[in-house]
Specification:
- The protein starts with a helix and ends with a strand.
- A hairpin with a 2-residue loop joins strand 8 and strand 9.
- The chain has one helix at about 1-65; strands at about 70-75, 80, 90, 95-100, 105, 110, 115-130, 135-140, 140-150, 155-170, 175-180, 185, 190-195.
- Strands 3, 5, 6, 8, 9 and 11 form a six-stranded antiparallel β-sheet that branches. It has a five-stranded antiparallel β-sheet with strand order 4-1-13-7-10, with no helix packed on it.
- It is built from one helix and 13 strands.
- About 30% of the residues lie in helices and about 35% in strands.
- It has a domain at about 70-195: Sandwich (Jelly Rolls).
């Protein structure tokens, strides 16, 4: 009887140990499977992050290659003569009819190049014939082209204009300068300043 009891106890013990071994084996298999799944997810995340970084770079490159649009026309919109002043001064073309790219500042009369390129500028004026007219297209402090008219008693009014292609670097400033002791007529839209980016 004792032998039978010992045999039964031994059988239960062996069965218990076998069950524990099965549970341990099953747990190891689950952990291994989870580790493989985690490794696969980590690889997938790295792949997505790499793809996102490449997409951002491509978008930035495309945006840098997109053409910049710059076009403006502005008028003085004054009610009469501008000048004469005892000093050189930029003409304020206060009303921007068109200002694509916002490179022209009506408060200062200055165009600031947003990008390197070749730009085309034109300026026109109306003036009374009894006073001198001396307008200069300026790139930073460099004279580019001008309009000049002598004062005459016989001539009641004059219209004049000039234009130039100008190569600019980003940040270069272009303005129309009125020379000291000269004038232009600013009524309505007869005195204008325009420009655009050619390439």
């Amino acid at each position: 009887m004792l032998l039978l009891t010992l045999l039964l106890c031994g059988a239960h013990f062996v069965h218990g140990v076998a069950a524990q071994v099965d549970e341990t084996t099953s747990s190891c298999a689950d952990v291994c499977r989870l580790q493989k799944d985690l490794a696969a997810l980590t690889d997938r995340q790295r792949s997505l992050e790499t793809g996102l970084t490449e997409a951002k770079s491509q978008i930035a490159e495309l945006m840098s290659k997109a053409p910049t649009r710059v076009v403006f026309t502005a008028t003085t919109a004054e009610s009469g003569a501008i000048g004469p002043f005892g000093f050189n001064t930029n003409v304020l073309f206060k009303t921007a009819i068109t200002n694509v790219g916002q490179a022209y500042n009506p408060s200062t009369g200055i165009f600031t190049a947003p990008v390197n390129g070749i730009y085309y500028f034109s300026f026109f004026c109306h003036s009374g014939g009894s006073r001198f007219v001396d307008l200069k297209l300026m790139k930073n402090e460099e004279f580019i082209v001008g309009i000049y008219d002598h004062a005459t008693i016989q001539d009641g009014a004059d219209n004049a204009g000039n234009a130039a292609f100008v190569q600019l670097q980003q940040g270069d400033r272009v303005s129309v300068r009125l020379a000291a002791n000269t004038h232009v007529w600013g009524y309505g839209s007869v005195t204008t300043f325009s420009g655009f980016l050619l390439s």
